Q: What sequence folds into this?
């Protein structure tokens, strides 16, 4: 079953930069897809167009049977809840603890005031604690986020995305700021989230070897265009 369909998507920025040109691909439910390409290829723009953090200039995106560019504001909010985001620079709130940052992922469901006051239910706190345990952070839940290592911060970023119960996890260069050991831990978690939790994962990477090791499918992007799209089994050294 298709979960995500990107159809003929282009993006031009106001300054004239053509970041994406006629991008086409689909992602199946349960797939682990890596998008690879050099810096400036358009990978980040592509992910941001999928959940409408920015608007594509033209084309169509269908996610879980919703036309992301046709739905009204309320429906878009529902679409976004089903799409978790993980960032290169983690985007944690420094002065908050690990569990508070994790619960921040629930903010979309609550008034901002409730979030600020920390009015989370016992059930939400339990779910946060469970996710943090899965991610190996159970001993750090009350630690301030700015006291964590990069790899630990990224695991909090993943927990914050997962607490929305997403169907799709979009990860924008999640290991680009991490050392090889932490990178492996993060990629192992992402693979496990896909395989064990059944969450579809789309991850921007620039290392081909990592993409080959973890993905079901690789989409190569260069200069805003798809230049390769295939399962990892079909990739030979000639590609
Ligand atoms: P990647 O993630 O593959 O490194 P990006 O999607 O960040 O690539 O960038 C693709 C192209 O779009 C680059 O030329 C970049 O400079 C440009 N770009 C990205 N964001 C903006 C923006 N907000 N305004 C203008 N140009 C942008
Ligand atoms: P502040 O405004 O105090 O810096 P925010 O709560 O706005 O903190 O979050 C900081 C960063 O984290 C922002 O870039 C925001 O987009 C991102 N962010 C916050 N909550 C989420 C979330 N649930 N999922 C993804 N990103 C988030």
A:
């Amino acid at each position: 079953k298709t979960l995500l369909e990107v159809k003929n998507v282009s993006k031009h920025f106001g300054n004239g930069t053509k970041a994406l040109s006629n991008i086409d691909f689909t992602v199946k439910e349960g797939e682990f897809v890596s998008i690879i390409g050099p810096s400036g290829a358009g990978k980040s723009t592509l992910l941001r167009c999928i959940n409408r953090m920015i608007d594509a200039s033209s084309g169509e995106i269908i996610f879980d049977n919703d036309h992301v560019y046709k739905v009204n504001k309320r429906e878009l909010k529902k679409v976004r809840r089903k799409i978790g985001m993980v960032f290169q620079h983690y985007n944690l709130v420094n002065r908050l603890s690990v569990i508070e940052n994790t619960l921040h992922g629930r903010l979309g469901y609550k008034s901002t005031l409730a979030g600020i006051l920390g009015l989370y239910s016992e059930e939400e706190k339990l779910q946060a604690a469970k996710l943090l345990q899965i991610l190996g952070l159970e001993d750090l839940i009350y630690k301030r986020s700015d006291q964590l290592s990069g790899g630990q911060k990224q695991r909090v970023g993943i927990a914050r995305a997962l607490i929305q119960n997403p169907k799709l996890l979009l990860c924008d260069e999640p290991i680009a700021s991490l050392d090889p050991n932490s990178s492996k831990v993060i990629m192992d978690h992402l693979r496990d989230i896909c395989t064990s939790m059944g969450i579809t994962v789309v991850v921007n990477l620039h290392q081909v070897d990592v993409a080959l090791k973890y993905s079901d499918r690789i989409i190569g992007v260069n200069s805003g265009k798809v230049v390769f799209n295939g399962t990892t089994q079909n990739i030979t050294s000639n590609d």
